[in-house]
Amino acid sequence: MKVAGHRLALMFCRLSVTGSHRAFDLSDVIRPKPMEFPYVALDGFGTTDTPGFITWREEAGLFQAETGSDLCPSPHLRHVYRLDATSRESFVVVRVEVSAPACGAGQEWTTIWEAKPWPAPTGPR
After folding, report:
1. Euclidean distance between CA atoms 37 and 23, whole angstroms
2. Which of 49, 87, 120, 122 has the highest count of CB atoms within 10 angstroms of its CB?
3. How many of the other CB atoms lie within 10 Å of CB of 95?
4. Long-range contacts for 31-37 (Cβ within 8 Å, ≥24 apart)?
5. Host H or E run for residue 2
6. How far apart are CA 26 and CA 1, in angstroms?
């Protein structure tokens, strides 16, 4: 896929019983570079190359990575990302959402963390 002039590949990889998408930077097609995703951890943030099931929302310019269990009912966690404006080789988490334990489609999502916009610069640079 091509996002903001940057070539990426999304691939689903089986991880024992479960699986996850992985993203690769294809700026050098001979050596695809695995990309890392930030995620919410118990003590702050961490990074992973297996963020869950990824969908691309082209109209919003955002990626969504969802993790959860196949047990029903169970909650799911969704991280929402955009490509970094300064370095197109990294993802920035902009929002984290959780669903109440439910079964099937149509789950309600609740935002539990959202990145705040940087304040506008004041004064001379």
Report:
1. 9
2. 49
3. 17
4. 33/89, 35/8, 35/89, 35/90, 35/91, 36/90, 36/91, 37/65, 37/79, 37/81, 37/91, 37/93
5. strand 2-3
6. 9
Distance CA 58, CA 2 (A): 10
Which tokens go with 5? Answer: 């002039």
User: 106's torsion region: left (phi>0), alpha (psi -120 to 50) or beta?
Assistant: left
Chain centre distance of CA 43: 19
- Cα separation of 32 and 22, whole Å? 12
At 46-94, the pLDDT tens digits run: 999 999 999 999 999 999 999 987 778 888 899 999 987 666 568 889 9
Q: Torsion-angle region of residue 14: left (phi > 0), alpha (psi -120 to 50) or beta?
A: beta
**Nearest of 73, 77, 78, 79 to residue 104 by alpha carbon:** 73
Mean model confidence pLDDT for the chain: 86
Q: Which pair of tokens denotes residue 84?
A: 């970094």
